[in-house]
Every structure is written in C-alpha cells, then in structure tokens.
Amino acid sequence: MSLNKPGLYRKYKIEKASGEPIDPHADYFVLRIDTDQWARKALEKYADDIEIFNRSLAAQLRARLNQYVSIQKPLEEPQL
Prior knowledge:
This protein is an all-alpha fold. The protein is 32% helix and 0% strand. It is built from two helices and no strands.
C-alpha cells in the first residue's frame, strides 16, 4: 500500500447517489477496502460493533470483506 500523503487531509468529494444535498456540517471518513488492509480491519471491527443493532448491514459488510480474503496478508508496517 502506498501512503501518498501522510496525515489526515481532504482527498474525496462526497455526494449522495440520489443527488440529494448532503449536510454541509457532516464529517465523512472514506476507507478504501480493496487496497488497504487496515481499512478492511476497521470495517471488520465496525461490522462486529453494529451487529446487534443492524444484523443485515453487518452481514453485508462481512460478505464484502470476504471478497478480499484471498489478498489478505498479515498487517505490514507502513512505509513512510
């Protein structure tokens, strides 16, 4: 994984698929799970934590994560 720019910074523009406006005060954090092993770990933890509140979403997230099992490697130290 390449860390293009260290730290937290604005990288993505967020918009709703429906075209509805987003809350201008909302704070979003985007994780790319196809290339980022730490993002997958974060999503796995999120699925675990929400399961009692939303089993369907937790199951869907785990199914998505299972697509990447074959590329899952032990967590590597980032190269800064």
